[in-house]
Automatic annotation (TrEMBL), chain A:
InterPro entries: FAS1-like_DH_region (IPR039569), HadA-like (IPR016709), HotDog_dom_sf (IPR029069), UPF0336/Enoyl-CoA_hydratase (IPR050965). Coiled coil: none annotated. Belongs to the UPF0336 family. This is UPF0336 protein Vse01_11900. It comes from Micromonospora sediminimaris. One of its GO terms (biological process) is fatty acid biosynthetic process. One of its GO terms (molecular function) is (3R)-hydroxyacyl-[acyl-carrier-protein] dehydratase activity. Residues 6-136 form the FAS1-like dehydratase domain.
From TrEMBL, chain B:
It holds the Pfam family MaoC_dehydratas. It comes from the Bacteria. One of its GO terms (biological process) is fatty acid biosynthetic process. GO terms for molecular function: fatty acid synthase activity. GO terms for cellular component: fatty acid synthase complex. Residues 6-99 form the MaoC-like domain. Belongs to the enoyl-CoA hydratase/isomerase family. This is MaoC family dehydratase. PANTHER family: (3R)-HYDROXYACYL-ACP DEHYDRATASE SUBUNIT HADB, 3-HYDROXYACYL-THIOESTER DEHYDRATASE HTDX-RELATED. InterPro entries: Fatty_acid_synthase (IPR003965), HotDog_dom_sf (IPR029069), MaoC-like_dom (IPR002539). CDD domains: SAV4209_like.
């Protein structure tokens, strides 16, 4: 079943706030081998002008992947997740994510195209603090592979 | 200008650790049985793990962990990770495409595994000191 084109431009309601924990940033940094002290030591982060430890650049995916379930699991949009592969990923930062942030995601469907029997869904997630400060915009292109 | 090459070893243990830290428990990243059933050669690395390693390379080149202002990639080829002690290796190189008056440096990044490109259109913009 093709994706419903009428979803292009649709924006979903904001997700529940995600509390960015210092230990979560340390855990993520350790998992990717990022040893810079600013990811682990609040003093080192403060020396760079941040209130607490700084997340590595791809950390926001922890939040946006969970947030995107809203869209992926929307039966009306009709994504068969078992046939999804990750196509593109992009982050445009206003500032880095830091421990203590309380972040809300707003998902929208930016583009739906099809080519060669596959469908391509581009989503945009605007990540901002609960106080309304924008932090990072995240784009993901998912490829829904056609049935062979 | 070409930047110094950086290499990252990736083993199954790294994928398990990344799955836990990121919350991405897709079994194609830890189960050969599942991965081969869906037509993959075996367990593959999370695309976002590869992107995270490239992010490390970019912040190392930039000289600061908070320097990245824009970072995008296209995943073109899976990174197969064998179930042994050595795993595989991702090699990351970059060239400086542009240095703007606003103190931004734009990089074109290449990531390869076993000599094959695993990303395309990999670009990063970093804030450079000054």
């Amino acid at each position: 079943m093709p994706l419903d084109q009428s979803f292009v431009g649709r924006t979903y309601p904001p997700t529940a706030p995600y509390q960015v924990g210092r230990e979560k940033i340390r855990e993520f940094a350790t998992a990717i081998g990022a040893t810079d002290p600013a990811h682990h030591d609040p003093e080192a982060a403060r020396a760079l002008g941040h209130p607490d430890v700084v997340a590595p650049p791809t950390f926001p995916v922890v939040i946006t992947m969970a947030a995107s379930r809203q869209l992926i699991e929307d039966p009306a949009l009709g994504i068969d997740y078992s046939r999804v592969v990750h196509g593109d990923q992009r982050f445009a930062y206003t500032r880095p994510v830091v421990a203590g942030d309380e972040l809300v995601c707003v998902n929208s469907v930016e583009e739906i195209t099809s080519r060669g029997g596959h469908e391509f869904l581009t989503t945009r997630t605007d990540v901002s603090t609960t106080a309304g400060e924008s932090v990072v915009a995240v784009w993901s292109k998912l490829v829904v592979r056609g049935e062979a | 200008m070409e930047l110094p090459t950086q290499t990252f070893r990736v083993t199954r243990a790294d994928l398990v650790r990344y799955a836990g830290a990121s919350g991405d428990f897709n079994p194609i990243h830890w189960s050969d049985r599942f991965a081969t059933k869906v037509g993959l050669p075996g367990v593959i690395a999370h695309g976002m793990f590869t992107m995270a390693l490239v992010g490390r390379a970019v912040t190392t080149w930039a000289g600061s962990p908070d320097a990245v202002v824009d970072f995008g990639v296209r995943f073109t080829r899976p990174v197969a990770v064998p179930d042994d002690d050595t795993g595989t290796e991702i090699v990351v190189t970059a060239v400086v495409r542009e240095v703007t008056d606003a103190g931004l440096t734009r990089l074109d990044v290449t990531a390869t595994c076993l000599g094959e490109k695993v990303l395309s259109q990999a670009r990063a913009t970093v804030r450079t000191a000054g």
